[in-house]
Design brief:
The structure is a single chain. The chain is mainly beta. It has one domain (13-82): Ubiquitin-like (UB roll) (Roll). Helices cover 11% and strands 41% of the residues. It contains 1 helix and 7 strands, in the order E-E-E-H-E-E-E-E. The strands form 2 sheets. Strands 2-1-7-4-5 form a 5-stranded mixed sheet, with helices on one face. A two-stranded antiparallel sheet has the order 3-6. The longest helix has 10 residues, at 33-42. The protein is globular and about 40 Å long. Residues 1-8 have low confidence and may be disordered. InterPro entries: Multi-ubiquitin_dom. This is Multi-ubiquitin domain-containing protein. Pfam families: Multi_ubiq (PF14452). Residues 16-81 form the Multi-ubiquitin domain. It comes from Sinosporangium siamense.
């Protein structure tokens, strides 16, 4: 049985993405990097707004996502947020 995504008052659908290996529910399908970080923090992911956000892409590639950058998200979207001074 399939479950339909919730529809928020705005008409956006709620999408569960992954931030630092943790599930985060967010209204999609298009969101800013800042909104992703805000949602992750509100849902208990131990990051800060100052962290650098990257989208994990196929073939082990990543793409930086700035606070004002708009990205399309779906259930397969994965992001990593690290402190600005992290050299990993």
């Amino acid at each position: 049985m399939s479950v339909m995504p919730e529809i928020a008052d705005t008409g956006h659908r709620v999408v569960v993405i992954t931030v630092n290996e943790r599930p985060v529910s967010i209204e999609g399908p298009r969101v800013t990097g800042l909104r992703i970080k805000q949602a992750a923090i509100a849902q208990g992911v131990p990051i800060e707004l100052s962290f650098l956000l990257s989208q994990e892409l196929p073939n082990h590639h990543t793409r930086p996502v700035g606070d004002s950058d708009v990205v399309a998200v779906n259930k397969n979207s994965k992001f990593t947020a690290v402190a600005d001074d992290d050299n990993s």
